[in-house]
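Good morning,

Both structures are done.
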Amino acid sequence: MGSADQTGSTARKARIEEMRRAQQARERRNRILVITGSVVAVAALVVGGVFVVRSQSDDDSSSTTASDSKASGHWVTGSDGVKTWKGTLGRTHVAKTVTYPMEPPVGGDHDPVWLNCNGNVYTEAVNNMNAVHALEHGAVWVTYTSKAEKADVDALAAKVKKTPYTFMSPDDKQADPIMLSAWGKQRTVTGADDPAVDKFFEEFVQGEQTPEPGASCTGGTMK
C-alpha cells in the first residue's frame, strides 16, 4: 500500500513538473511574441513617420499654389503712373508651378534657374517662374500682347537688345498692350516713344528695388 502511494506521488510530481515546464515554455513564447510585435510596431511607426515627413518636405519644397506663392498684397499707383506692390513677395526657389496674383508677375517664389536677361528678346511666351528670378537679379521685363502695334514692338525690341539686364516677351494674359515690369514695380506705356519707357529703364534696371543687385543675367535658361 505504501509503495503504491509513493509511486502515485512520484508520478504526480512528475506530471506537475512537466506542466510547469510547459507553462514556462508558453510564457517564453508569449514574451518573444510580445517583444517581436512591439519591435514590428515601432518599426512601422518609424517608417510611417519618415514617409509623412518626407512627403511634407517634398510638398513644401516642390509644390506651390496661389495661396502659398508668398506673393500677397495690393498695388499702389504713384503720381508717375508706376505701380508698386505693397505686401509680401517671397523669394523661395520651388520646382512646381506657382500661380501669381498679378500678370505679368513682379515677384514671389520662383524657379531656381533665371531667364537670361542680357538684352534677350523672346518671340514666344516665357515661363513666369524663370522670368521672376530674372527680376530678382534686377532686370526690367517688357511684355506686349497681340494688340500692340508692330512698330512699337520692333522699336522696344531694338532698345532691349542694346540694354543689359532687360528682356522682352509676348504675354497675351496681361491687361494692357504694352507693360514694363521690375521686381515689385509695374506700369503700362502707350508705345515705344512714350517718355515713361526711358524713365522706367533708368530707374529700375539694376535699381534700388533689386533684391540681388549684380547677380548674373546670363547662364540661365532661354525658355
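Second structure follows.
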Amino acid sequence: MSRPQKCRRVCTLPRCGGFRPMEDAPWSGTVTLGVDEYEVIRLIDLEGLTQEQCAVQMEVARTTVTGIYLSARRKLAQALVERKALAVEGGHYRLCDGGECRRRGHGCPKKQKLEAFHRENRSDL
C-alpha cells in the first residue's frame, strides 16, 4: 500500500489557466502543469529561492520539491519544443491560509518558518 500524498502549500493561484503558441503557428496537443508544479517554478525560478527554501515554504520535503521541479521543467520544455499548449490546473495542493497573500497575489506573509530557516543557516563569513 502506497503512502498518501501530502498536499503542498501554494500561496498564489496562477492568474491565467494556460498558454498556447501564437495563432499563426500550428500547435498540437496540450501539456498539463499542476498548480503545485507552477508554484515550484514560481518560487525557484522567479523568486530565487533554493529548493530547500522552497520546501520550507510549501511544507514538503526537499526531495519532493526536486521531483516536482524536474517534472515541471520537463513539461515546460515539451510545450515549448513541441509547440503544445500549456494548461495550468490540478495537482495536490492547498491554498495557504494567509488571506493577504491571496488578495495581493504575491508572496505569503506567513514567512516565520522561512525566516527562521535563513537565520539558522546563515553563514557568518
